[in-house]
Design goal:
alpha+beta; 60% helix; 12% strand
Length: 209
């Protein structure tokens, strides 16, 4: 085959490789977008659903990008005449080594997945971690960013969470002591307390609380 025809054939194959990778990218992004919408709809507008869906979509989008373009690069090297078998074998060995060295990372990713899917806590929630109250500022698959009452920022790997108390979900009780004089009418005192509670419940800004 003449050199010019060979170069033209290689150019066509490289162009088809790039086109195939682009189409796979678009298909992957479409599927990721559909997954995000499905997660939002399945969440039925619960707090933090949109944030969790966006986080999961970003992770899958990055994964699709890495896999598609890595495959396209290997195929392009094969088109250019490179022997990619040693490259693939080396990548497999490196992957095994990284797998042994990244057990903690894998643990954090799996824990983050369940935190997001099970909606254990979300952005804006107040949580107790090791007895310390903090507000959740960001949740990713690997790490959660918390801000303490004093303003300190803590980055906690998701695999480190053992027991987390969420103060912001559904409802909770608060005990309030109301001093009443020994000679006062307890029935009247109770009626006054109930009146205050009913008044708060009637106010729009307090009713949701």
């Amino acid at each position: 085959i003449p050199e010019s025809e060979k170069l033209a054939e290689m150019g066509v194959r490289l162009a088809l490789t790039a086109l195939g990778a682009f189409l796979l990218m678009q298909l992957g992004r479409l599927l990721v977008s559909r997954l995000r919408l499905w997660m939002v709809r399945a969440g039925k507008e619960r707090a933090g659903v949109e944030q969790r869906a966006r986080t999961v979509a970003q992770i899958f989008d990055s994964l699709v990008t890495a896999v598609v373009w890595a495959g396209a690069a290997v195929h392009a090297l094969a088109v250019l005449g490179w022997d990619v078998k040693p490259l693939l074998a080396g990548a497999g060995i490196v992957g095994v080594a990284l797998g042994f060295g990244a057990q903690t990372l894998v643990r954090d990713l799996i824990a983050g997945y369940f935190i997001l899917i099970e909606s254990q806590f979300g952005v804006g929630d107040w949580v107790d971690v090791d007895g310390q109250p903090s507000q959740v500022e960001e949740v990713t698959l690997r790490v959660t960013r918390l801000r303490s009452f004093n303003g300190f920022v803590h980055h906690v790997p998701n695999g480190e969470f053992k027991t987390v108390t969420n103060r912001s979900r559904d409802w909770h009780r608060l005990t309030v002591d109301v001093p009443v004089g020994a000679n006062e009418d307890l029935g009247h005192a109770l009626r006054v307390c109930r009146g205050v509670v009913d008044g708060l419940n009637a106010e729009p800004e307090w009713r949701a609380r």
